[in-house]
Amino acid sequence: MAEHLLTTTVTETTTTTPTTTIPPTLELISSAIGDSFVHYLNKLDQIPGGQIILRYIRSSYKNDPVRSLFELALFIFAVHYFLSSKRKENKADIVKFSKLEIDELIKDWEPEPLVEEVNNLEKWQLSAIPKIKGWNKSHMTLYNEASGNNISSNVVNLASYDFLDLNENDNVHKAAKAEISTAGVGACGPPNFYGTQDVHVRLEEDLARFLQTEQSILYGQDFVTAGSVIPAYLKRGDLCIVDSGVNLAIQKALIVSRCNIEWYEHNDVDHLESILEELKPTLDKEPVRRRFIVTEGLFLNTGDICNLPKIVELKNKFKYRLFLDETLSIGVLGANGRGVVEHYNLSRLEISITIGTFAGSFASSGGFCAGVKPMVQHQRINSNAYTFSASLPPYSAIASSQSIKEIMNERTAAGNSKLIAQLHERTSHLYSKLTSIKTTFFKVTSNSNSPIIHISLSHQYRKALGLPAFYGNTHFLNTGKQARSLNEFSKAYNIESFLLQKIIDGVLFESNILITRSKSILDHENLPVISPQLLIMVNSGASLKELDLLAQTLEIIVNKVCKSVSNEARLLSLEDELLKYTKY
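Below the sequence we write its predicted structure tokens.
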């Protein structure tokens, strides 16, 4: 007979201390179980890999099969415990309801609201949203939904991001209409499945050619573009040096990526350089990790333009990559609308990642990212919004392609885009008119090249009203850390916004020109929020005469409103007025 690989052994030990003896019956049962287990265990020798298990038992447990059997039982129990339901219902405790009782319970049930109710102090903001009859264009009709009447017609629209007035372009309309007739209104799937159509591929090519880069990639929604692109490259342990004035979409994207963040003062390249110098010795000793500098081209919150040449110089010196958000600058800055890169006459190859939107100057919807081929290809399988979200609607894609063609079709004598030249002319004209106004109540704070002209209440006037310099996460100014809890509702921010709304309404009533204001939801903000500002969105469809009228009217209305609210007590008295506000 073949010798068993495992055998049961009995060792006799003698001790001087008293021991407890096992009853003969239990000893026989244990011996029988052990012999039986050994018999079946030895059959493992006939199975490929079984010898490894037998060798493990023999070496680990000193040829003790009973111990192995006990461990196997514990392992089976553990698997059963974790895979089975941890709580088994007692059928005796289950209460059965009749259909009538179920209906009564459903009738009495009140679900918790998905969002908090708008309090009475905020309801005026809903009433202040203008309703447009027809589509959004440079001259439009405002509509009162409650009364069913037009408030005013032929209103000059300076409250839209459609800077080039392409929403009113017949060629864009025809292209979108033809695509709807052919492909419908939806892509019906994510790009990696069956959501990519020929118009998407053409738009990627048109955009890459327009921006003078290797490739581009499309996103169905512009707000989630940053929130998908940044986490595709940055993970926990990576490093970002970020301008503290970036928009909300970038703030949220950085939180999702869980990377390490260092903030530099808004648009202060000297502070950026000092941070890079300070971090260099530490980073030189650590393993190489991904490092990005993150900024905007044209800042949404302030209207500033980043010092891109200096930032490019620093990122090359300290070996960082550059992430640039050109949501507002593409289609606006540069002789042909190629953004802040063209504005400074730099190469797009200096920018590792560029993101932007089609919802501005391109008169469409969705977002995009542009750069070198490997960067784009990486996003096609690693970017969540691209992989799991529906593609850009086909008609939006072809409208964007047509808008790019419209920008490049008509040329000036110098060979640049005529549309962009018209926008620059109107921006410069209105900026000059507004900055020449002598007043103690407001000041223009944006860059002279920005078609979004930011006007804020002067420091002197805000101080007289007792208004703070910042709202929301003010501890960031001392700690440099993003807020981890929601900001509370601010009465001061609400009343200051209402004061600006009175100016907006006054300008509309006197000149039939609609402007707007900044709108920040403090609950969502992780960085300090600057004071609310009046925003004038220059549109190439508005005439120079209409812009002159705006400058004249704005001076009159601002002086009238601000003189009527001259101190903190008068400001607080506006609460009674905002509770009754029903403008539109």
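DSSP finds 23 helices and 17 strands in the chain.
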